């Protein structure tokens, strides 16, 4: 019987990344996430659906897409081109005939071999402390693809990391753990009700997975991360609760406090989602970040990584 190639839905492969693990890395972004955080800075990665996206900065307003549209999936408005992806259209043709590449699919399916081939182009960087990171969305939403890909990386002795929101069944983590050198696990909101309000899901499974990771043999290769989202995750109670929880699970836990990233806002218009801030806040200063770190220290965390 013919072997069917395993495919994943990939929305970006970013080269020369320096924030997703050690050294210079290639980061593969897999589409789909079980959470929908109101501040998500990759909102195009939340839905599992492959959809067309319009980039106004590339559009020259020629109207070809509107003429090709048969069911009002593309219309010209006062504010420019507007897509309605619920409408049946020949999106392939519309994308192909847009002269400036202003309409594109937001992601594509790729086989494991195709992604391996892509990341191997950066092999020279992997020899000097770099590697490959799987991110998203939630990469563990595509567990078979991830497992197969990680095995290919390990065959070639390439350093592997994953960035996960941890709202996944524990077995999936257990399965991929042997193939990972570094695990970034998010813990955003300590209070389960608050977690549900702002991410769409409670956090019991996340707490379970954090305990599992921090009691595993790989606990020294785990970094728990909390993004500082003004008013959502920055309260003393939240940072304190998370810090007590993780330091109790493993006294040497590494805890990364991520600065707020204001750049995510621009993507919301592209994917028809509403951002959580009317007025986009700024990055926190080094002094502010140090105050957050102080709360974590006071609540038992010794190893703090500050992402300024
Ligand atoms: S075809 Fe492309 S460039 Fe022309 S109006 Fe449509 S999106 Fe803009």
Keywords:
single chain; 308 residues; alpha/beta; 9-stranded mixed beta sheet; two-stranded antiparallel sheet; 11 helices; 22% strand; globular; binds iron/sulfur cluster
Describe this structure in words.
- The N and C termini lie far apart (53 Å).
- α3 (112-120) packs across α5 (143-155) and α9 crosses α11.
- α5 links the parallel β8 (131-136) and β9.
- By secondary structure, the protein is of the alpha/beta class.
- 35% of the residues are buried.
- It has helices at 64-68, 91-97, 112-120, 123-126, 143-155, 170-176, 192-199, 204-215, 236-249, 265-268, 286-298; strands spanning 7-17, 25-30, 52-54, 74-77, 80-83, 103-105, 108-111, 131-136, 160-164, 182-186, 222-227, 254-258, 303-307.
- The chain has a 9-stranded mixed beta sheet with strand order 7-1-2-8-9-10-11-12-13. The protein has a two-stranded antiparallel sheet with strand order 3-6. Strands 4-5 form a two-stranded antiparallel ribbon.
Task: Briefly say what this structure is.
It contains 11 helices and 13 strands.
The 3D shape can be described as globular
Q: Could you describe the largest sheet, including whether it forms a barrel?
A: 9 strands, mixed
Q: Hetero groups bound?
A: iron/sulfur cluster
- Give the count of helical stretches: 11
Structural class, by secondary structure, is alpha/beta
Low-pLDDT stretches are: none
Cα distance, first to last residue? 53 Å
Rg measurement, Å = 21 Å
Order of helices and strands: EEEHEEHEEHHEHEHEHHEHEHHE
Classify the helix fraction into a percent range: 25-40%
- DSSP summary, beta strand count: 13
Order of strands, widest sheet? 7-1-2-8-9-10-11-12-13
Q: Classify the beta-strand content into a percent band.
A: 15-25%
Mean pLDDT equals 95
